[in-house]
Amino acid sequence: MSFDLFKAFILGIVEGLTEFLPVSSTGHLLLLERFFGFDDDAFGKTFVVLIQLGAILAILSVYFAKLWRIALGMFSDPAAQRFVIGVLIAFLPAAIIGAIAHSFIKEVLFNPWVVCFTLIAGGAVLLWVDQQDLRPRFHDATTFPLPMYLGIGLAQCLAMIPGVSRSGATIVSAMLFGSDKRAAAEFSFFLAIPTMTGAFAYDLYKNHGQMTANNTLLVAMGFITSFVAAIIVVKTLLDYVSRSGFALFAWWRVIVGTLGLIGLALGK
After folding, report:
1. What is the pTM of this model?
2. Confidence tier at 139 by pLDDT (50, 70, 90)
3. How far is Cα 92 from Cα 19, in angstroms, rounded to an integer?
4. What is the pLDDT of residue 186?
């Protein structure tokens, strides 16, 4: 039991640290699961999704005041109404595709080989974006044009492939559509709330039979550690990417993906 709790502790930390970085939390968790031997347990893949609730609550706690103002203005403030509509527009493509292809994603794409290749490819994309002379037109994540929210939502669907990174797809697409780095990263936080909540609720509904007392304790451990780690990332990421860009995350992806491929080729 103690070793199971230790695994849940480590996986929770990794989830919290990587969920909002453009490095793919799901990809890292799947590779760690393989190392820990969790990949032979059907509950392991469900655990990866369920502990995302800790990261969701981290966003809600950090942005509580701003989100509360938006919630209060939903029925009276046109700007708040427009932003909520924009988030819903960005959320719907992934929600629809995720519901339709849920089984295929979990059974086929949740594969360490897929993760390693997409980590490397995503790293190359981040390096390419960092080298572009982009001229941002939008500096506030709450005021993007509605078609831009839809475009970001469509790009986010690529993150159905483990290793692509939900935050990475959101940030890169927002920047290519004209956002500055800070606003792109901040919108990835806001879009994460409905996206991750939907994935959490759907997976819990589909796999509630696996929630034994022991598994519930494991999820609770992962939830707590992911919550604490995610708060640290959310509070520091915006300033970091505004100053330094994405090269660090890009090379991290390439290194992890390459080491993973070597390990898989050696039969580890």
Report:
1. 0.85
2. very high
3. 20
4. 92
Find, among 39, 38, 36, 18, the residue nearest to 27 by Cα. Answer: 18
pLDDT digits (tens, 9 = 90+) for 185-228: 999 999 988 887 877 777 677 666 666 666 778 888 888 999 99
Angle at 7 between CA 250 and CA 62, to 5 degrees: 60
Instruction: Give the span between the Cα atoms of 235 and 213, in whole angstroms.
Output: 33
d(CA 149, CA 128): 22
Domain count, the chain: 1
Q: How far apart are CA 94 and CA 105, in angstroms?
A: 12
Helices (H), 24-111: 25-36, 42-50, 52-62, 64-72, 78-100, 102-104
What is the distance between the alpha carbons of residues 59 and 83, in angstroms, rounded to a whole number?
A: 17
Tokens standing for 3?
A: 């070793």
- What is the span of the domain harbouring residue 227? 2-265
Mean pLDDT of the chain: 85
Report the alpha-carbon distance of residue 199 to residue 208 in Å, rounded: 13
DSSP state for residue 20 in the 8-state scheme: T
Each residue's pLDDT tens digit, 230-252: 999 988 988 888 888 899 999 99
Sign for the CA dihedral angle at 91, 97, 100, 104 comes to: negative
Cα–Cα dist 113/253, whole Å: 14
Region class of 111: left (phi > 0), else alpha (psi between -120 and 50), else beta: beta
First CA to last CA distance, the chain: 24
Neighbour tally for 61: CB within 10 Å:
13
pLDDT value of residue 177:
95
Q: CA 110, CA 163: separation in Å to the nearest integer?
A: 9
